[in-house]
Write a structure and sequence with these properties.
The chain is an alpha/beta fold and 482 residues long. The chain contains eleven helices and 18 strands. α7 crosses α10 and α8 runs parallel beside α11.
Length: 482
């Protein structure tokens, strides 16, 4: 029996604490309850995987794809790890208490917008990189890593990310004209912080004749390049994939003023778009213009979903059976970031592999973009146990390696970059960042014995700073129930 004078006040205090810390969840629960009470045809809040798309001005739900269709033959062994990181989608009408800047409320104020979706991405944490090199390398990383990372903080060797959101809009008879929205680097470019859909809205939209039934805006900066297709365009497509028709036929991808390069062309095909569907000019007027420029650039869902899509149904090979160490050479690169003692490092790695006597081999590739893309992806995923190189666009090929691969990115202290680290950790890879003094043009000279020590301790092994990736619940220590 509970004592009325002692236990009940304590229980009341616990109840109040639970209500306070779970207020956001209470808000979402109220929304779902309200939807049920009003006999809504779909839930206001849905996970991206299997999300029902609301019927209404955009047409019947069965004409629009959902993430359920994106499964690969024979993928059971690999599974779809991205599903547990899928965002929640709030696609209701604007309701009392909903922030005015959320997508459903923006859509309500603009008659040309047929659907506005607010996407709430799960909070997460990743391990900070394994750092070696200069004596103060960790200090250099800590000072640089978080000054530009929104909604991120560090504690005990981990980087925590929370509060990430995205927005999708379908615009009726949206219009794109050359250069607007911009594909140049700047705050208003697609995927930048101040990106705005107003340039797609036109006053005479009701009487405008469309040139395409569907279009999606992908005018992110340098979207024609291999690396910026991967770190930006893929985010746009993944976030809005469920809003496009089951068949990508009839969908125009608008990229800006410059046509995509050879690598992006092949990757567009992986996403279901033929080369003649990707246009670099304008104007383009679409019955339904999809705008997804407000999207997180770093999140496990994006990393894992892109990996699943590109790797497809390739067989999963145990790490112990992968025998290739791939060195990405930057020798002779005209725009800096060269590894000055590259030849010495290559010879030392080759010597180590011979001494290990485990049938491991070293391969050196100078320009991976010249390789056949399909064969390169297959080679990386099924053969490569470790990927190493100085920081540069070629390092983005780690995204096609296995999720347990070793990734070593040699970094100049004058030009630290975080994108490879964030993506590698989101994939669960064993990522290392040796930092050495930067020279003119951000060239760098590695400490060869330190790099060899990484190989000695890590080659053929999963990441030692586990868990590399994990969910993050800020209030987990204060929950009384659940």
């Amino acid at each position: 029996m509970l004592s009325r004078t002692k236990e009940w006040p304590q229980l009341a205090s616990v109840f109040v604490a639970v209500v306070l810390v779970q207020a956001p969840l209470v808000y979402l629960l109220l929304r779902v309850t309200a939807a049920s009470a009003s006999n809504a045809s779909v839930s206001d809040i849905s996970p991206l995987v299997g999300m029902p798309v609301p019927e209404g001005r955009v047409g019947k739900a069965e004409n629009i794809s959902t993430a359920k269709e994106i499964r690969f033959p024979n993928s059971g062994e690999q599974g779809l790890k991205s599903s547990e990181w899928a965002p929640l989608i709030i696609n209701s009408e604007c309701k009392p208490g909903m922030p005015s800047y959320w997508a459903p409320c923006i859509a309500e104020r603009r008659s040309q917008i047929e659907i506005g979706e607010e996407l709430v991405y799960p909070d997460f944490s990743i391990a900070e990189p394994q750092i070696t090199g200069m004596k103060n390398a960790k200090e250099i990383f800590q000072k640089d890593a978080y000054k530009q990372l929104e909604r991120a903080h560090a504690k005990d060797g981990r980087s925590y990310r929370q509060g990430l959101r995205g927005q999708n809009f379908i615009i009726a008879n949206g219009r794109y004209t050359n250069g607007r929205p911009s594909a140049k680097w700047g705050p208003q470019a697609c995927t930048s912080f101040e990106s705005d859909l107003k340039d797609l809205l036109v006053p005479d939209w009701n009487s405008t004749k469309a040139t395409s039934p569907y279009a999606i805006l992908a005018t992110s900066p340098d979207n024609w390049s291999f690396q910026h297709f991967l770190d930006r365009v893929t985010r746009i497509i993944e976030q809005s994939a469920h809003l496009l028709p089951d068949s990508k036929r009839g969908v125009t991808v608008v990229t800006g003023s410059r046509a995509p390069g050879a690598g992006p062309k092949l990757m567009y095909e992986k996403y279901g778009f033929r080369s003649d569907q990707v246009v670099s000019g304008g104007p383009v007027i679409a019955n339904r213009f999809v705008y997804s420029c407000r999207v997180p650039l770093v999140h496990p869902y994006m990393a894992l979903r892109g990996h699943e899509r590109i790797v497809g149904d390739l067989p999963k090979i145990p790490l112990s059976e992968k025998k290739v160490v791939l060195f990405l050479s930057r020798e002779g690169a005209s725009h800096g970031r060269n590894l000055k003692n590259e030849k010495a490092l290559i010879e030392s790695i080759r010597t180590l592999l011979e001494q290990r006597n485990k049938s491991e081999v070293l391969r050196v590739i100078a320009k991976p973009e010249k390789e056949d893309f399909e064969q390169l992806v297959k080679f990386l995923y099924t053969n490569v146990t470790a990927l190493i190189g100085a920081h540069g666009g070629a390092m983005y090929n780690h995204r096609f390696c296995g999720l347990d691969s070793l990734v070593i990115e040699i970094m100049p202290s004058t030009n630290l970059f975080h994108g490879i680290w964030e993506e590698a950790m989101s994939l669960g890879q064993n990522y290392w960042m040796p930092i050495f003094p930067g020279q003119s043009g951000h060239n760098v000279e590695a400490n060869v014995p330190q790099i060899i020590d990484i190989f000695k301790s890590q080659l053929g092994k999963p990441a030692s700073n586990s868990p590399v990736l994990s969910h993050y619940d800020k209030y987990r220590k204060f929950r009384a129930f659940g």
